Amino acid sequence: MKLPIFQxxxxxxxxxTIGVFAMKSELTPERLVFFxxxxxxxxxxxxxxxxRRRIQIPKISMELLYVIFGGLSLVSTWYCLFQAFxxxxxxxxxxxxxxxxxxxxILGSVLMRENVQVSMFAWLFLAFLGIIIAAANxxxxxxxxxxxxxxxxxxxxxxxxxxxxxxxxxxKFYPPEYISLLQMCIGALFFSFFIDFSLQSIELKxxxxxxILGxxxxxxxxxxxxxxxxxxxxxxIAPLMYIEPVIAxxxxxxxxxxxxxxxxxxxxxxxxxxxxxxxxxxxxxTQYPDKE
Length: 292
Fold this sequence. Notes:
Layout: H1 2-16, H2 18-25, H3 29-50, H4 62-87, H5 90-97, H6 100-111, H7 119-136, H8 144-170, H9 176-191, H10 204-229, H11 234-241, H12 243-256, H13 262-282
Helix pairs in contact: 1-10, 1-12, 2-10, 3-4, 3-9, 3-10, 4-5, 4-8, 4-9, 5-8, 5-12, 6-8, 6-13, 7-13
């Protein structure tokens, strides 16, 4: 039991540092997503080969379509999240992204007819109120237009992650590592149409950061997350997932010296409290895709 808890906690700690590595790379969101997918796909291919996982060309089926659309939703999550980091801040971006559990419940109730308690909408209101309070207290250090566009991208990141989660719930027969490999290949292929391949313009430090993002923050994080997920009591999953935003916010303060007033701190507490309540409900019904 101790090892799975450690592995899961470590995966959340790694996830919490994604914002810093993304910002330090100084690459555009499009390039970041492409190279993250590219290096993660190579790493997952090596992992599958090392573990003697048989790689087959997938047959056309509804299951494959769920994998494809889930993958596109996942990489769209990353793109929107990186935009939010760049335009607003790591703290604002991660807070907005953590509204994903609300979207899962809302979309699940509409599309899959899952029961949702009315009280969940009160928590949803509380989370958005927290985002407004936290964002409003960042206007003094971030251009107002960029800040609110960043908030929108952060909320879209949460929405796309929720969509990826719902597609993940539909996938029954593909093993998790195979799903990840396919989705990384799909993501790299999709974003290859939107980036400039003049690689000489990328500095060495950028290569280091994006290589770590692909290998550590995607492939290794993925392996730790899924290897531990099935062995952890459900009651511990939601609390442990909050290692990620705590580390993300702490890294924003330490690395970028972000200013936190009382009102911004209050907004953060409101969002984390509300999403914690919803996450405890979600872990009972949700199969998560790869982390952000």
